[in-house]
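Researcher: I'm comparing several assemblies side by side, and this is the next one on my list. It has 739 residues spread over two chains. Same procedure as the others: predict the full complex and return the structure.
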Amino acid sequence: MKKLLTAAAVLAVASLGLAACSSGSDSASTSGDPVTLTFWHGYTEADGDVLEGIVDDFNAAHDDVKIETEVKTWAVIDDTLLTALSADQGPDIVAMPAERLPVYASKGAFADLTDFYADDASNTSELNPQAVAMETVDGTPYGVPTGFVPLSVFYNKALFAAAGITEFPTTWDEWVADAKKLTVDQNGDGTPEQYGMVLPDHATVANGVWPSLFYGNGGDVVEDGTTAVIDSPENAETLEYWSKAVIDDKISPTGVDGVKADELFSSGKVAMTIGGPWMASIAKDNAIDYGIAAIPAGPKQQAASAIGVSMGITAQADDAKAAAAKEFFSYFFEPEVATAWSLGSGWPPLRTDIPASDVADNPTVAALTEIAGTSRALLPGVVNSSDVLAEMDVATQKALAGGDVPSLLGDAQAAIQSTLDEQ
Amino acid sequence: MTTHATRPPRRYRPPGQLGGRGPIGGQAKRRLTIAGFLLPALAILTLFVFWPMLSALRLSFTDASGFGREKFIGLENYTEVFTDPDILRAMGNTVLYTVMFTPLAVVLALALALALNSPYLPFRGVFRTWLFLPFIVSLAVAAFAWQYLLDPQVGLLNYWLQGFGIRIGNVLQDPVLAMPTVVLVAVWKNFAFYMIVFLAGLQEIPGSLYEAAKMDGAGPWSRFRNVTMPLLGNTTGFVLIIATIAALQAFDQIYVMTGGGPYKSTQTVVMQIYQSGFKDLDLGFASALSYVLLIATLILSLVQFFVTGRREKDVG
């Protein structure tokens, strides 16, 4: 028996060794082989298939380069990239939510793309400058955009019809007036059963709801990536305007975050939500007849914070791989490819020279392309943007719970400035 | 003459000593055998515990981020730990959490263990199983379930309570109620383990002591006070220490249910370590904060160990 066990153990060890040998010989490359790049991205839906198609076409057209994609969720990419890169097991190209790129770039994880942008053949000159702004840290670009889309309002057409509203509002006052009409408290207990809109007060969709509202009244959160400007009379007006609408007019439930806002809209409990393009398919899945509109203009301007996705070349890629990756980026921005990607991903084209009529096949994309010009990058160049946004959340959350707006903005200003000074 | 005559008299060897049958080289062989048995466990501990701990200690004096070269920055990280208002707030929150969690979980566990140990309780096995169920569920899963139960719009708890005219509102977004809520979820999840430990302790106490106390006229409270509590001293000390350590490491349900909010009111030290290390990629600072937590845990455990140890002596 003992001998049998020993023999089995020896066999098992030997087979492990064999397995190791065989996998080793697979990856061994000879000099004639193409440069092989690993590309991590989080496009898991239909957009993933389109991206896969673009990569396949690129591989087919380039004998010397082979890109192998690995699809993971965005969260998994964020959780594993650091350890993978430090163990030299990471990707050569990686896509990630744009607000995470500066954190990695500041730690030296991404290659400098200044020369790439300067090269005419890179097809980057027509890119939306706001989309490029979110790739830049201290004046150096570390990535290229793969997506840039303004937040927009999704509204429930059935609820609008029931309230007799035929035109979507275009100013804040009209917006609040319509939201009041859409707020229904049937049993009169002071808690509406249906809300006109949902205004999340923290962790909003892509953290962009409050910046969008601040821009609308001429305010901002951070200037030049280094100076906190959240404590301004414009922002105080904005916060007071919306906390009054939420607290006094009860147009929105309180204490809601972005995820919860999506749920409330898809369950038909609220008539309007501010969201990203994925709301279209969520609404469709929940049999909600929805419309898409630009965030109504504030007293000063119409503006919307944008959601961005970036991709960059990691520090792990050697010169040959970096050159191959840049070749792929240029291909990705060719007008036909950019148009196909826009239609497939459901996001507006990254090139400003592609008109809405070119993407009319997808009405959502066409609607978003119409308003793409007003979209603004969120906190471009701010490395620890998540800390800045957390401080902004404290102010908005307390304001919507009835806090004193001027002192909240004062506190946020001090906290954000000290966060910016640390980076 | 036989060989028997020349053999030295057999010396007594305690059964605990392994190996070394002959007198020559016995000691060395025994040591080798002991080392042989310890080696696999030691190798695993060294690889996955001691080495990472030492690496973290080294990182805590650097500005490491996981990429490229790291710079030695002395005690800068440690200075920041004790001056950054966010970290100090997280420490305060952790203390608050511990002060709420530990007594509540331990008292509840003891009370239920006493009830389960009572011979008068029918269906003891059933209750024991039911009460132990929450402990089997992963805390993250339980936290998701509680989050939905507590939801102000679609949550069952709010719906049921509304039937009685009670509105608990959005507890997880209430700066005062969020912390007690995450504490209660942790108590619900963890009390059963402490209960089982208490139950084992209770069953060690000989029944004859209770009989003797009864004959001396001791009532239930007096029996609990003078027989149960002193003899459960060791168990109580152990439970207190592990409950405190668990409280200091609070993370899962907070990450899932509140994300540290509202207004960072449930941001604990471990949440902060996660944020610094894996979101801000500031591994050096996260390591320093981990070491501060480790030392605080160690000190607290030692204090409890000596306090409960001394009480044992006083009683004994």
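Model: For your comparison table: The longest strand of chain A covers residues 304-313.
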